[in-house]
Hints:
Layout: E1 4-7, E2 15-18, H1 21-30, E3 38-42, E4 47-56, E5 61-70, E6 78-84, H2 88-100, E7 105-110, H3 120-141, E8 148-149, E9 153-154, H4 155-161, E10 166-176, E11 185-190, H5 198-206, E12 210-213, H6 224-236
Parallel strand pairs: 1-3, 6-7, 6-11, 7-8, 7-9, 10-11, 10-12
Antiparallel strand pairs: 2-5, 3-4, 4-5
Amino acid sequence: MRLSRFFIDAPLSLGQHTLPETQAHYIGRVLRHAVGDAVQLFDGSGLEYLGELIEVGKKSVRVELREVFAGLAESPLQIHLGQGLSRGERMDWAIQKACELGANAISPIVSARCEVRLKDERADKRMAHWRQIAISACEQCGRSAIPLIHPPLSLADWLQQVDAELKLVLHPVAEPLASHLKPQSLAFLIGPEGGLSESEVEQAKVAGFQAARLGPRVLRTETAPVVALAVAQQLWGDFS
Length: 240
């Protein structure tokens, strides 16, 4: 039986802990774990904790953590993904897969052809939703650190703020990704469903980005980060 693994948004240590109500409900009512079941917890610090459930109630779950060890090492390639804001499941998919593929930070980007606009309460709900997607992706794939999900930014603001040794904007007319030298840190800019306009690509270039292509086919906005991050990890990260 696969060991259940959960992120706890609070510092962990050896000994007994009462889990937050959200996790308690999921562990006790949804997964129907019982006293004596083994669990593995992590808090985003890079450490993993093995323990055993010692109390399972309707709203309260207690665990005794008995072993601590270093979690899965992060890729040596630091990746910040600037992902054009897209609708519903497409954005969810891009964030989920970027987390699985080792992105350290993800910024939803508002550009000219974005069909989504988020403001105030709706933006807060989407941010909470995206963070939960990132957490679930890390629980599934074994990462011990949760990528940072930034609030949506305009393209101009993101271009001014992002810092990386190599900055790439995906564009169908450019040199292949593999033509670039190995960086320690990488920023990817990927357009929304309608793509980036030529003026926006030029704007990125002025900000220090270089155009790069992944191949002869035009990829959907939710497919592009999966391919880009996988190729980058193979070339310069921890896939090789």
